[in-house]
Amino acid sequence: MVRHFISLKYFSPSQINELIELTGKVKKNRALYRYKLKDKFVGLLFQKPSLRTKSAFYLGAQQLGAEVIYYAPDEVRMGERESIGDVAKTLSCYLDAVVLRTFSHQVLEEFVRSSSIPVVNGLSDLLHPTQVLADIFTLYELKRDIKKIKFAFIGDGNNVCHSFLYIFSILGGNIYVATPKIYQPQSKIVEECRSIANISKARIYLTNNPKEAAKDADVLYTDVWVSMGKEAEAEKRKKEFRGFTIDEELLKLAKKDSLVMHCLPAHRGEEITNSVIDSKHSIVFLQAENRLHSAKAILLFVMGGKL
After folding, report:
1. Does 45 fall in a domain?
2. N or C: which end of the chain has fewer CB within 10 A?
3. One domain, residues 158 and 267
């Protein structure tokens, strides 16, 4: 059976914890995993440009012994020059796995239906599971057990937010999501996560008040207000998100030893201020580093068999 990494909702708590543990092992002992994917071939098919996702999976695959080929956004023009299904079937002839970064989650799903090799969701408009796995690993690395902390996601109820809702609901964490009313996370995903939370005892809170979310928080997390593909909404979004900037005022409401996280790239001065992102509370570049280690764990999972 082909193993994909599309959404965290398909993983059990034990599987997620295994991936977190594997990320730690890979980070601690790079040499031990140097040839685990020797003679394998990984394709990076990106419809959206990237710094961290490309670097993490490109270098991660190489450090595991695999060969890598990168397809730039304008190179394949999947869905225009060639059908999504035909691209998936063709790459299945050449490669052992594909990391797909796309605008539409429907494109990802259609690609998976035609692929006979593992597909990793490097980002879609609905989900960003590779980012969130690295972030949860980062919290555990810093001795922050998500079952014992208040995690506040402040900003857009976007793909990153959706993936956090899934992982917190599965692992039994405590998450506050503060968004403007018209940019709340999708209701279908919230309902799914609340159902999962009934089993895991996770606590999910939605609010339109960023101060409520920030108060006594252990972690403050944000993302850009205007993602790639949403540029036409920029002015409207900036007005709606006024008051949602993680600044000194919001930071003071959180716990004294609180952590500040951002998946990057950051629009400094919009969703987060320079004084906060560059402060002692910020762990954004540790997050960025850990994208590499979690990418390697994901590749080992989809291509290397049992964890």
Report:
1. yes
2. N
3. yes
Sequence-separated (6 or more) residues with CB below 8 Å from residue 93? none
* pLDDT value, residue 263: 98
Same domain, 85 and 182: no
Q: Domain count for the chain, please give it.
A: 2
Q: Same domain, yes or no, for 172 and 91?
A: no
DSSP structure string for 27-57? HH-GGGGTTTTTT-EEEEEESS--SHHHHHH
Judge if the upstream peptide bond of residue 185 is cis by omega within 30 degrees of 0.
no
Say yes or no to pLDDT of 60 above 70: yes
SS3 state at 184: coil
Q: Is residue 1 part of a domain?
A: no
Residue 27 CA to residue 4 CA, distance in Å, equals 22
Task: Supply the range of the domain harboring residue 273.
Answer: 143-282
Do 165 and 35 sit in the same domain of this protein? no
Give Cα 47 distance to the centre of its chain.
Answer: 17
Residue 118 and residue 182 share a domain: no
pTM for the model: 0.97
Confidence of residue 1 (pLDDT cuts 50, 70, 90): confident
Task: Give all strands of the β-sheet with 174-178 in edge-to-edge order.
Answer: 203-207, 174-178, 151-154, 219-222, 259-262
- Whether residue 121 sits in one domain with residue 155: no
Q: For residues 61 and 40, what is the distance between their CA atoms, to the nearest angstrom?
A: 9
- Is pLDDT of 86 > 80? yes
Quote the pLDDT of residue 305: 56
- Mean pLDDT across the chain, nearest whole number? 96
CA distance 189 to 199: 16
